[in-house]
Design a protein that fits this description.
7 helices; alpha+beta; single chain; 7-stranded antiparallel β-sheet; 6-stranded antiparallel β-sheet; 2 domains
């Protein structure tokens, strides 16, 4: 596998601050020949190299290099260092997080925890989820004119996504439309715009939507979106156990 291919498939970000260490430790760190990590005297931190040769996968090399570099410090320097976090990614999937505090390394794997969901801007959802691979499930309820069902179905059926359309059910009860979506491949922004345009009055719109992606290993792009008329609220799950 080529260096360029490895660089695309595996990456690392973050830094571990070691602070004002002694001259001997600085020399040892400066001489450390890592593929992924290096010592930055200006930042007083272990940082990710700007140029990654890619001879070793980050998932295996980054933890080993981090341990080796911390081992070059004196014991009291490790204990007094500010610490920090490195996150290793594989393609589009978060793989693990390395947290350093007082010379100790904690390894964490991501896991979605909706009980500790955090509110985010709605625009974050639109930026994070590629419309052509978006996956939408949930329900919506709104007052709409006669024939609005066809407009909504037409949007979804004509949407140029990369995956099957999923299941869509639209029923009417007097002036009210009831919409059920299960794994529908449609852009979240386009869907919300259409629902708001059809809602008459706009204040009648209520929706609870699960927004995700059909793309492989893309669970960090999962969101929940709540619509109340013109107002919208988005949350995403916590990915990491609390420190």
């Amino acid at each position: 596998m080529s260096t360029a291919t490895l660089a695309r498939e595996l990456e690392c970000r973050g830094r571990v601050r070691v602070g004002g260490i002694g001259a001997a430790s600085r020399r040892r760190l400066a001489g450390f020949a890592g593929e992924w990590l290096e010592y930055s005297p200006d930042e007083e931190a272990l940082v990710v190299r700007h140029v990654q040769p890619g001879g070793s996968p980050a998932l295996a090399a980054v933890p080993a290099e981090l341990i080796a570099m911390l081992d070059l410090l004196e014991a009291d320097e490790r204990d007094e260092g500010a610490g920090g976090t490195l996150v290793v990614r594989e393609r589009d999937r978060l793989v693990l997080r390395l947290m350093v505090e007082r010379g100790e390394i904690r390894i964490q794997w991501p896991r979605e925890d909706w009980a500790k969901a955090r509110e985010v801007e709605v625009e974050t959802v639109f930026r994070a989820v590629d419309p052509v691979s978006a996956r939408v499930s949930g329900t919506a309820r709104l007052q709409a004119r006669a024939g609005a069902e066809g407009d909504l179905v037409g949007l979804i059926e004509s949407f140029e996504g990369l995956y099957p359309e999923g299941d869509l059910r639209v029923t009417r009860d007097g002036p009210w439309l009831h919409v059920e979506l299960q794994g529908v491949n449609v852009g979240p922004e386009e869907l919300i715009r259409k629902l708001r345009a059809l809602a008459d009055p706009t204040a009648s719109l209520e929706a609870e939507l699960e927004i995700g992606s059909f793309a492989p290993q893309a669970f960090e792009r999962d969101f929940r979106l709540e619509l109340r008329g013109a107002e919208a609220r988005a949350v995403r799950p916590s990915l990491w156990p609390e420190s």
